[in-house]
């Protein structure tokens, strides 16, 4: 890893309609704009917390969060309670990892080149998840439950019982790579080269 200060972006109660962007011209660490119910936002000890304390999955269409992160820090992203409709281009970022405690639905992320083994962990199920990584970056996809419509580059599985494990041919010998772990069932998962 680099000498950048380590930060974590945390959503303690889940989030919907999330966009995370990177702004190289920022002087601060982060900036957020929120629509619908306003979350509690705090920053302390390298943790930026965006807390929708009244988070209700039946009202997801009425909220959105646009968050800009600075390149002056390395970032880990943690979402507790799940995420729906997350679209982000994280390529300019130094990403230390992503952890979602809960499920994901309709997520499309452009990932940066990793430094070391970068883990993307989802403890629940996943549906309509696309992870786009730079060309030449190896990846492994592990799913704990049953799965349908899985794609890892040229590898495709229609429907299989779990657990499932796919990896690119160059994965085992690489040091800079992505490890994608989904604890529950999965449908329409794509881990592809950008």
Task: Provide a concise account of the structure shown.
This protein has 194 residues and is an all-beta fold. The protein contains no helices and 18 strands. It is globular, with a radius of gyration of 16 Å.
Notes on the protein architecture:
The structure is a single chain. The protein has strands at 5-11, 15-22, 30-35, 40-44, 47-51, 64-69, 73-80, 83-89, 94-101, 104-110, 117-122, 126-133, 139-143, 147-152, 155-160, 164-167, 177-182, 186-193. It is mainly beta and 194 residues long. It folds into 2 domains: 1-93, no CATH class; 103-194, no CATH class. Strand 14 and strand 15 form a beta hairpin. It is globular. The two termini are 23 Å apart.
Tally of domains: 2
- Strand fraction band? over 45%
Shape annotation? globular
* Count of individual helical segments: 0
Low-confidence stretches: none
Element order: H for helix, E for strand: EEEEEEEEEEEEEEEEEE
* Beta strands, count: 18
Structural class: mainly beta
Tell me the major beta sheet. Answer: 9 strands, mixed
Kindly report the spatial arrangement of strands forming the biggest sheet.
4-5-1-7-9-11-17-13-16
Q: Name the helicity range.
A: under 10%
Distance between termini?
23 Å
- Mean pLDDT across the residues is 93
- Specify Rg, calculated over alpha carbons: 16 Å
SSE inventory with pairings:
Elements: E1 5-11, E2 15-22, E3 30-35, E4 40-44, E5 47-51, E6 64-69, E7 73-80, E8 83-89, E9 94-101, E10 104-110, E11 117-122, E12 126-133, E13 139-143, E14 147-152, E15 155-160, E16 164-167, E17 177-182, E18 186-193
Parallel strand pairs: 1-5, 1-7, 2-6, 2-8, 7-9, 8-10, 9-11, 10-12, 11-17, 12-18, 13-17, 14-18
Antiparallel strand pairs: 3-6, 4-5, 13-16, 14-15
